[in-house]
Design goal:
Elements: E1 9-20, E2 24-25, E3 31-32, E4 40-43, H1 45-59, H2 76-87, E5 91-92, E6 95-96, H3 104-117, H4 119-124, E7 125-127, E8 140-142, E9 145-147, E10 150-155, E11 159-165, H5 171-176, E12 180-198, H6 200-207, H7 211-223, E13 235-246, H8 255-259, E14 262-266, E15 277-281, E16 290-294
Antiparallel strand pairs: 1-12, 1-13, 2-3, 4-10, 5-6, 7-8, 9-12, 10-12, 11-12, 13-16, 14-15
Length: 296
């Protein structure tokens, strides 16, 4: 692995959804997430991280050091078992037999191994307190990359569309009906904004997140919807990735002041496409030691 990053980064992502549901709320019948007080649409940070993980898993499939720890249809304990086998630590019925529980040396050895082999642990961190049936407590690894909830620029108006399915499920159903009904929730159009942070200090002290990892992160963000299209999510695309790079590991300016330089304002009363927004990035008078790059 390459050396850990030396600079702090702050970034803004603008992405759009057209005739789709970007992030269903299980507490509201899978309707698009929404702030009930303002009508602003929401997309959780967990949802965005899932897209990034899926892209990396596809783009780096089989490559050493780019495994994905949080993945579908794979238990965490099974991945923990694989890690212990690779480390050649003594196992007996799924537990370490010659090391004490909460052994600091073993915990650190396994944490380093997991960070070195799993991109998402190295990037976002992980909670590994259940490591191999609590044989060891590897604790919580704080990842250097964090995302906020994405918020729509303007209030959204979710629509519920009725749909039919020609096929019926059982022979009994076929005797009385020729199709089945369902409901589908969509947003006609919305532009969302998420903000993110990359900590050089956590990369150096905790996970070893490197420059190669950083470039892969930018690539994954720009393409996170390209291999994830579905009828439920409609058409989604990343439109802007604005990155602020700090000279210092601890930063040269507060992130909120940098984020204020990125603005998206509608230029029509009813936005239905990206051109209906004016997106501006103020590049003038940046704080000393901060550089700006628009990657999309």
């Amino acid at each position: 692995m390459s050396e850990a990053i030396q600079n702090r980064y702050d970034f803004v992502i603008l992405f759009e959804v057209e005739n789709g549901n970007p992030n269903g709320d299980p507490d509201a019948g899978n309707m698009p997430r929404i702030d009930p007080e303002t009508g602003i649409g929401l997309v959780s940070d967990v949802c965005l991280k899932r897209k990034i993980r899926n892209y990396v898993e596809t783009a780096k499939e089989g490559e050493q050091g780019y495994g994905i720890y949080i993945q579908e249809r794979r238990t965490l304990n099974s991945l923990d078992q694989d890690a212990l086998k690779d480390l050649k630590l003594p196992l007996e019925e799924g537990k370490l037999k010659s090391l004490k529980k909460d052994d600091p040396e073993a915990d650190e050895k396994i944490r380093n191994f997991m960070c070195g082999n799993f991109f998402d642990i190295r990037t976002f961190g992980a909670v590994m307190t259940t490591f191999v049936k609590a044989a060891l407590n590897c604790g919580q690894v704080r990842g250097p990359v964090q995302l906020t909830f994405a918020k729509s620029i303007d209030p959204i108006v979710p629509q519920e569309a009725g749909i039919t399915r020609i096929a019926v499920t059982t022979e009994k159903d076929a005797e009385t009906k020729s199709n089945t009904m369902a409901r589908k929730h969509i947003i006609p159009y919305a532009l969302y904004r998420a903000e993110g942070f990359v900590s050089a200090n956590l990369a150096q002290k905790s996970t070893g997140f490197s420059e190669d990892d950083l470039q892969l992160l930018w690539e994954a963000i720009l393409n996170m919807f390209e291999d994830d299209h579905s009828a439920a999510r409609g058409r989604m695309a990343v439109r802007e990735l604005v990155v602020f790079k700090h000279e210092k590991a601890c930063g040269n300016a507060p992130s909120h002041k940098l984020f204020e330089r990125v603005k998206a304002e509608k230029n029509t009363s009813l936005p239905r496409k990206y051109a209906d927004y004016d997106v501006t990035v103020d590049c003038e008078g940046l704080p000393e030691g901060v550089a700006l790059e628009r990657k999309a």
